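HOLO CASE FILE
Compound: magnesium ion
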Amino acid sequence: MRFSILFAPTLKESPAEAEIISHKLLLRAGMIRKVAAGIYSFLPLGYRTLKKIENIIREEMDRIGAQEMLMPALQPADPWKKSGRWDQYGLEMMRLKDRNGREFALGPTHEELITDLAMKEVRSYRQLPLTLYQIQVKFRDEIRPRFGLMRAREFIMKDAYSFNANMGDLTASYNDMYMAYNRIFSRCGLEFRAVEAASGLIGGKVSQEFMVLAEAGEDTILYCGTCDYAASQDVATSRMEEPSTEEIKKVKVVDTPRQKSVDEVSAFLGVPADKIIKTLIYKYDNQLIAVIMRGDRDVNEEKLATVLGTTNFHLLTGAEWQDYPGLVQGYVGPVGLDGIRLIADNEVSLIRNFVVGANLEDAHMINVNVGEDFQVEEWADLKMVRSGDACPRCQGTLISAKGIEVGHIFQLGTKYSEVMGATFIDEDGLPKPYIMGCYGIGVSRLVAAAIEQNYDEGGIIWPVSIAPYEVEVVVLNYDRDEQREIADRVYTELGKMGIEAVLDDRIESAGKKFADADLIGIPVQVVIGTRTLKSGNIEVKIRSSNERKEFPLDRAVDMIVELVKRMRADVGVGGNSVEQAG
Ligand code: ATP
Ligand code: MG
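Model generated. Tokens follow.
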């Protein structure tokens, strides 16, 4: 490709709308353009990277025997009504009607359509296992579309679905996917971790997310510094400390005028926050629930949702407190809190002689103990695990990091097949629901995630496997015959040798050309100028390390080819040993 005709409208300044680095650089490098909030066009350079990622995914899906297909984005409401998600999905689903008033949606995902297809076409256990996938556009009317390709409303996803006859086969399909995902993200040159995850609306039990580690990530993960435990914060647990052996003291009410928050009570009474037990009042379905937990901890509402079996609850709001005159806001405690379901975080069981609200204005109780002063019938792990907590698997300590979710694999089991009545005839002649798995990759989100991990002040630093081009030949004076002849020869020969090259043949200043080359981030820059003619050497710059090499003119092409091949091998899967799914 010649730069003089390439459609890559680069920008010197970052557009104001872009908050994070990948969004800024994708716009500046002329790779994407915004159409509307969360909706983008891919320009030629951005599209090349997208296609490269897609092809890596394709190769690895095909390698494990998954078969590519394509389903429509426009989906009738029927299968969604069958699964119950037409009502559950809420505002994130883009809905529309055709001219006859029939209901449709722009697919946010494809479990319903694929299950419907399998139900009609896959009748016997002999046709199983079957894994199908597609790389296709998805629509989600996100509350806050932002960060460019990261959280878009129209985006590209790879979604795969496995149909199995039994749990053992599902585990095998899931493990194949797990391995394929590891190879895909390694081949994209990314630093990532597979973490235990919550299953959310999609459903099912076993699930793992693949997180690209980057500060701009919207997710928090916790991983052990010693063993391979890693989990998303939504589900992370930690090893509990030893229970207190303090002698049990006698409970007592003390005055704490105007001291409401844990910090205030802690300072006022001179008691550390981890010996104060706070009581949080939640409301759902006109019912109140009291959650008690250590004062220095936060409630993990994802875990609470799992315990309650719904996400439809909230902390009692300021106005709602008026409806319950028996509850003294700021001084609620578990002692004598009758008629309200009480759930205690497991950690409360370790502490003795703690402080709680006294259910009286301006008063707390000290020396409170479970079993002595109140009873707990429901225990659960409800705490938000944080950096420094103990690893649940070994003696190590957990570390927290920000991650970008680029993939998610689920063992769905019979969640969809059962409600939709999708069955096959098993070996024993009986109809059974398919055991299913589903496996997503945010293909367009990966483009942004790769940049979040690979950039410097000059611009993007593409891993060679997903770079729009591998080599950029920068000619300083294309209007001078000698330079043009060398540049054209190098560019043409590189192409013949299977190297993807772009030739910057524009009549622009050297400064502009170098700045654009760094911004666009092609891994190898080859510079041809007056110095080349004088020294007989071509200058080669490695974008990632800034390392500069001199290659003699007569051997330059071979040496560049060698260099690119070595870089390709470095992001291959060969060197990365990948472990079995956890
Ligand atoms: P998130 O928690 O980020 O909203 P999700 O749990 O809704 O993700 P899935 O339904 O598992 O995502 O979709 C599969 C993959 O699609 C995700 O792992 C992610 O990489 C990608 N993805 C999801 N939502 C978006 C979006 N709005 N824009 C770009 N990619 C997305
Ligand atoms: Mg989502």
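CASE NOTES: The first strand starts at residue 32 and ends at 36. Residues 574-582 have pLDDT under 50 and may be disordered.
CLOSED: yes
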